[in-house]
Amino acid sequence: MLLSTLGQAYLRLPDAPRAISNLSKAVALDPKNGSYHYQLSRAYLKAGLQSKADAETKLARTLLDSPAQGNMEAVSRDENAETITEQPH
């Protein structure tokens, strides 16, 4: 997802507030994606928000350790693709 990639780019700049903004949006669109939660935890760490980083890290580990994680990512991508194609251009 582009929001996640953009968030990661802001982490490298470093621009933690913009990274958090974009990664939070990515998480909102795909809340079962453990990778997005992990990236958001890194952004929170760079911003000095330890408690939020810890919560996101814990959630990321739970999601990434889940055997259904791969299936949920595919379902989320399919749902997003349907939403995008149904919108007028």
Report the β-strand fraction as a percent range. Answer: under 5%
Low-confidence stretches: 74-89
Radius of gyration: 14 Å
| Number of domain units | 1
Helix content: over 70%
Number of helices: 5
Average predicted local confidence, pLDDT: 78
CATH architecture grouping: Alpha Horseshoe
| Count of strand segments | 0
Structural class: mainly alpha
Explain what this protein looks like in three dimensions:
81% of the residues lie in helices and 0% in strands. It has 89 residues and is mostly helical. The chain has one domain: Serine Threonine Protein Phosphatase 5, Tetratricopeptide repeat. Helix 1 (2-12) runs parallel beside helix 3 (34-46) and helix 2 (16-29) packs antiparallel against helix 3 (34-46). Mean pLDDT is 78; it is low at 74-89.
Strand-helix topology:
Layout: H1 2-12, H2 16-29, H3 34-46, H4 50-65, H5 69-86
Helix pairs in contact: 1-2, 1-3, 2-3, 3-4
Key phrases:
Serine Threonine Protein Phosphatase 5, Tetratricopeptide repeat; 89 residues; globular; mainly alpha; single chain; disordered C terminus
What's the short story on this structure?
This protein has five helices and no strands. It starts with a helix and ends with a helix.
